[in-house]
Specification:
This protein is of the alpha+beta class and 270 residues long. It is built from ten helices and four strands. It has two domains: 184 residues, no CATH class; 73 residues, 2-Layer Sandwich (Alpha-Beta Plaits), CATH 3.30.70. β2 and β3 form a beta hairpin.
Length: 270
C-alpha cells in the first residue's frame, strides 16, 4: 500500500511540475516527458497522449522480451502519470519567469521521480529504452545510453523550441537530479572521518566519549616516515565535524584528517 501511495503521489507531483512550470516555458528535460513537452508546445498534442504513444511500443517489446514481472511497475507508473497529467491540467500555470520555472519545475519533477524510483518503479521513456538497447548492445552501459538519449532529446528541443529554453532546461535537469539524490539518499548526510596519527588510540577514545559515536581502529604504517601509526575511522553527523576536528587537533596538532560525504548508512548509526 505504501509503495503505490508513494508512486501515485510521485506521478502527481511530477505532473504538476510539468504542467505548471516546464511545459509553459518549453523546458525539455529529456525522456518521454521531454518529447511530450515538444509535442504540446508545437502541435498542442496533450502530454498525456504523447507519453502513452511513446511508452506503449517500449512496454510491449519489454513485455515480450522480459516478462510481465519486469514491466508491471513501469506500466502502472506510466499509466498513472498520463492520468495525473490530465487531472492536474485544472491547476493553472504559475505566472513567473523562466528562471524560477526551471528551478521549481526541477524540484517538483525531481521529487516526483524520486518517490517513484524509491520503490523500484520508473515512468518509462529513456530508462526503459536504454534497458532494451542494452539487451542487444551490452557493451554500452544503461546509464550511458540514457545520457545519449536524453541529450538528443534536449538538443532536439533546442532546435525546434529555441536555445534559451534548452539552456534553462539544463538547470532543471541539474536541480531534479540533486532532488532525486536527496529523496533516495536522505537529506541528513553523514561524514566519514579518517584520522591518522601516532596518538590515534587516544584520539579515538576521547571522541567516542565526547561525540557518543563508535570508532574503528586500524594499525598502519607511514610509508614516508616508516613509523608505526594508527588509523581511526568514525562516521558522524555533519554538525559534529567541527567538534571532532578541534578535539583531534588538540591531542595531536599534526594529525592527518580526511573527511568524506556518506550517502547511505546501514546499521546502528543514529
Amino acid at each position: 500500500m505504501i509503495k503505490w501511495l508513494s508512486i501515485i503521489l510521485g506521478v502527481t507531483v511530477m505532473a504538476i511540475g510539468l504542467n505548471s512550470f516546464l511545459e509553459p516555458c518549453s523546458l525539455v528535460i529529456g525522456g518521454a516527458t521531454g518529447i511530450a513537452v515538444i509535442s504540446e508546445s508545437l502541435w498542442g498534442i496533450p502530454m498525456s497522449i504523447t507519453n502513452l504513444v511513446i511508452n506503449a511500443p517500449l512496454l510491449i517489446i519489454a513485455l515480450r522480451l522480459m516478462g510481465f514481472s519486469f514491466v508491471k511497475d513501469t506500466l502502472y507508473a506510466t499509466l498513472l502519470l498520463s492520468l495525473a497529467l490530465e487531472a492536474t491540467k485544472v491547476i493553472p500555470p504559475v505566472d513567473t519567469d523562466i528562471v524560477l520555472s526551471a528551478v521549481f519545475g526541477g524540484i517538483l519533477t525531481g521529487t516526483g521521480l524520486g518517490l517513484v524510483f524509491r520503490f523500484g518503479a520508473t515512468t518509462g521513456g529513456s530508462d526503459l529504452a536504454a534497458r532494451l538497447i542494452h539487451r542487444y548492445y551490452p557493451a554500452f552501459s544503461i546509464s550511458r545510453i540514457m545520457l545519449v538519449l536524453d541529450v538528443c532529446i534536449i538538443l532536439g528541443g533546442a532546435f525546434v523550441l529555441g536555445l534559451t529554453p534548452a539552456m534553462y532546461a539544463v538547470v532543471t535537469v541539474y536541480v531534479l537530479t540533486k532532488v532525486i539524490d536527496v529523496i533516495l539518499g536522505g537529506v541528513d548526510y553523514a561524514k566519514a572521518v579518517f584520522i591518522i596519527s601516532e596518538k590515534s588510540d587516544m584520539i579515538g577514545r576521547q571522541m567516542m566519549t565526547a561525540l557518543k559515536r563508535g570508532a574503528t581502529y586500524i594499525n598502519c604504517k607511514g610509508m614516508y616516515t616508516d613509523r608505526e601509526k594508527g588509523l581511526v575511522l568514525m562516521v558522524v553527523s555533519a554538525r559534529q565535524i567541527v567538534k571532532l576536528k578541534t578535539l583531534a587537533e588538540s591531542i595531536d596538532p599534526g594529525a592527518f584528517i580526511i573527511v568524506n560525504d556518506v550517502r547511505e548508512i546501514r546499521g546502528d548509526f543514529r
